[in-house]
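pasting for ref. prot 1 ->
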Amino acid sequence: MREYLLTLCVTAAVTYLLTGPVRKFAIVAGAMPEIRARDVHREPTPRLGGIAMFFGLCAGLLVAAHLANLEPVFEQSNEPRALLSGAALIWIIGVLDDKFELDALIKLGGQMVAAGVMVMQGLTILWLPVPGFGSVSLTAGQGTLLTVALVLITINAVNFVDGLDGLAAGMVCIAATAFFMYAYRIWYGYGLEDAAPATLFAAILMGMCLGFLPHNMHPARIFMGDSGSMLIGLVLAAAAISITGQVDPDAMNLFAGSEKAAVHQTVPVYIPLLLPLTIIAVPAADLVLAIVRRTWRGQSPFAADRGHLHHRLLEIGHSHSRAVLIMYFWSGLIAFGTLAYSVNSASMWIVLVLVALSAVGLVLLLLPRFTPRAPLWAQSFVPPRYRRRSVAASVEDAQAARTAGLNGATAVGGRQRFLSRQKVDSSR
């Protein structure tokens, strides 16, 4: 665990320290597009935050390669090099798009090329655990198609949800945390070394997001742009592909008996393996809804609009920060709920807790103008808008407002009397 924490901290530190210089570079390079109709920010903000995130990824991989417990990951597997190759390609495409606004089909082609490069270097899905059938081996063509499809879906899901300050980085960080906990459990809990690359990828992804978030929280000083959103989407997809297609579920030996019975009885444990998109369920749902909505209107699926989930939260009255926190809540609920269910599916209290938290989330959605107030002991730790006002302060504010109103009325009355006197003098 210490090696993963060190890798995470180095990645976060490099990303955080480089984001400031990258922001200045983006301003000088002119990577500050004009505000578009679908944007929610009011001032032009530089992009290219993905540059800092990419160098954070490189620093994390470099440090991990020199750690004793993580060095075998690079010696026994080609997946880290495959990830770096695909990440470099998708990062270059994203940088060009942040500067020159590439066509959507060109970006899609670049995403397919990046996924193909990873497949060629061994980062691909080899088999799938299917309930009732056991581990189903895939042909080279089937594995390639499934891998490319998963990469495209994940990248574009993250890219679509990148519409509010801190939203994409925070949601991917939540997903990476849940995925790291699952992969670490498979790696050290069951002793399966094939899960080590996915655990490393998730730790590095957490560091990339945590290092960038302080610069990207509302009001954001810099955006990650497509160079960042496509990059973190690809890293998340690589982690899912690694643990889905490389780890043999029968090697866990959770139950004795036939292969079919073992896979069937341990379906909850394989939920993150079978359905890695549950980790990014909210962005994936936003992607599907956007494609359906735009196709129904006769538009291109890549045509931008203001119909995303975060836009709808703003339209019903939620503030910018509150909309982001609600999206965080639902992402965390789905990701960690799936993780808890995979650990122990027989516990009824897990289901009850999930139902209760879902009810809380629905209440928050229905109260867009409700402003929570922190308790007295936490007044110094929360933003001013969440602090409780004392009675004396409220009375002083009321008196000040009343005085300001009287002064304003007096000034207006004096002005009117002066104008009427001027009119009388002129008539004389």
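and prot 2 ->
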Amino acid sequence: MNRDWHRVRDRIKARWSTVEFDDKAMKQTRGGLKQMVSLIHHKTGEPRAEIRKKVAAAL
């Protein structure tokens, strides 16, 4: 996930456009799928497996 971070971040923010993501929190997840899934799960309550699928599609 380190490559094209800005592209990935923008796609994540677009996919969950109703959620406010703090840039600092997003930067802390950089490079880690597990951390990104945890952040989104914490913000949305969505099942982790579903989030993983959506994040993988964004990559």
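The chain has a mean pLDDT of 86.
The two ends are 8 Å apart (CA to CA).
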